[in-house]
Amino acid sequence: VCIQTSPWFAGLNFSLVTFVFMLLTAFAFDFGYAWNTLLTAAVAAVISYARFRHTVSDIQSKKTINSMNERLIEEKEKLDVSLQKYQYVLMQTNNIVIDWDTQKDEAIFSGNWTDDFDYPMEISGFTRWIQTSAILEGGQRRELTKKIHEAMAAHTQLEMEIALNNKHGVRKWYLLHFVFLRDSDGNIKSGLGYLTDINKHKLELLQLKYQATMDALTGLMNRSAMAEYMESRMALNGPEDMIVMLIIDVDNFKRINDTYGHPCGD
Questions:
Q1: DSSP secondary structure letters along 170-237
Q2: What is the gyration radius of the CA atoms in the chain, in angstroms?
Q3: Mean pLDDT computed over every residue of the chain
Q4: Which of 53, 113, 241, 266 stands 20 to 30 A from 188 (CA)?
Q5: What predicted TM-score, i.e. pTM, was given to this entire model?
Q6: How confident is the model at residue 107 (pLDDT cuts 50, 70, 90)?
């Protein structure tokens, strides 16, 4: 007990106890007796010192563990606050966050995912799910898969507009932004991204494009839309393909415009 409390007091205690013991047993004193007594005291001192060091080490370990626990509790509280802020931001931005573990091929969704789509928050076999899920149209499945591979290979971020079919069968437009996280060796460990609802903005743009490229009276393509369509269509033509254009003209229609004016001719 003394050696664990104060080493200098224990050393003094051992010395006095040994001296008193030898003094009281002086009637049997000889060399062998003295040697055995001193050896026993030395062994006792070594054992006590060893126990003292062990106790000190144990106390220090407990202090270290307590200190680590306190830091962990502080970090957990900070993390909880950060998660609350994160959830609040998600609620305000209305984004759907995607956390993809590329090693296990598992994706975790948050935000309004389950509210908008009839799928669970966690999806295993995420790569296969992209290629087979009814949430995407066939063409967009291939485009998304291609862009994911390109972003992985080029160490770049992925950003594209995609149309997703929600649980009501309505097709809505989203902006997908994705970044891939790598370890120190450059291997992809996970992917983190989000979906932003841009449906209203996209429909407005499509409506504006329609109004800019279509004739208001007939609903047919105007001149600029016709030229754009022909250029894109001809670019897709193979050597054996042929395009036929039919032009219909009204004879002497200029006379109507000249006589009654273009509003009437329209």
A1: -EEEEEEEEEEEE-TTS-EEEEEEEEEE-HHHHHHHHHHHHHHHB-TTT--B-HHHHHHHHHHHHHT-
A2: 42
A3: 84
A4: 113
A5: 0.55
A6: very high
